[in-house]
Amino acid sequence: MRDRLRGPEAEADGSSAEVSGNPAEDNSGGFGEFDGAWIDKKPMVISRAVIGTFSKGYVIARRRRNYEALLHGLENVPGCRPLNPELPDDVVPYMFPIWIDDLDRVFPRLEDEAVPMQRFGQFLAPGIDESVCEVSARRSHHSLQLPCHQALSETDLALIIDRVRRAVRGQSRPASESRSASRPREKAAVT
After folding, report:
1. Among 41, 109, 119, 176, which is least packed by CB within 10 angstroms?
2. Mind giving me the DSSP string for 31-54?
3. Cα–Cα distance between 10 and 32 in angstroms, integer?
4. Residue-level pLDDT, tens digit, the chain, 191 residues
5. Would you say 150 and 67 are in contact if contact means Cβ atoms under 8 Å apart?
6. Which residue intervals of the chain bear CATH 3.90.1150.10?
């Protein structure tokens, strides 16, 4: 598969070297794998410039605020609970991990509702089961991570909370929010 994604490029000696079009990948000799030789390299100038434009205090405050909003918005919902109900003062979260008792039923509903999320261990490596790692196997059947990054608006958070609550409770989308409500109705044929 990797060979089909990368086109061969002729070397001076007639052999071919694979090129991905990604300079970091081409120069590191890897296909996205960790390469320790790059550990002491500085980020590109543009990356440093972009990072420099962000206020660390703003990012910290927004992520913590968003985590707390998800925590309070999803508390007391039967069938789900946060994995970390307390946010230590020195933690800046990126995701909000949540345990859902009946994830096999809830997950497809959340996907249908376009809830942004990551499912822990959705695809476990072959051979990973309860006998190898009970915690990973169990979490793969019950854990989700919801975003709480700084770019989320209050509206985004309210939608995520509402859709998770309804999916866990087995409720449908309100008619005012249904996909068909936003589509124009077809006119009946006149005969």
Report:
1. 176
2. SS---GGGTTPPPPHHHHHHHHTS
3. 22
4. 344 334 444 445 555 555 555 555 565 555 566 778 888 888 888 888 887 787 889 999 999 999 999 999 999 999 999 999 999 999 999 999 999 999 999 999 999 999 999 988 888 788 888 888 888 888 888 999 999 999 999 999 999 999 999 999 988 776 666 554 444 444 444 43
5. no
6. 56-177
Residue pointed to by tokens 């000799």: 29
Q: CB–CB of 97/120 below 8 Å?
A: yes
CA-atom Rg of the chain in angstroms: 23
At residue 30, the pLDDT reads 52
Go through 25-46 and write b for each residue having 16 or more CB atoms within 10 A of its CB, e for each that does not.
Answer: beebeeeeeeeeeeeeeeeeee
Name the residue among 140, 138, 137, 156 with its Cα closest to residue 148: 156
pTM as predicted = 0.66
Closest CA to 89 of 68, 71, 74: 68
Closest CA to 26 of 39, 12, 9, 45: 9
Which fold does the domain 56-177 belong to in CATH? Aspartate Aminotransferase, domain 1 (3.90.1150)
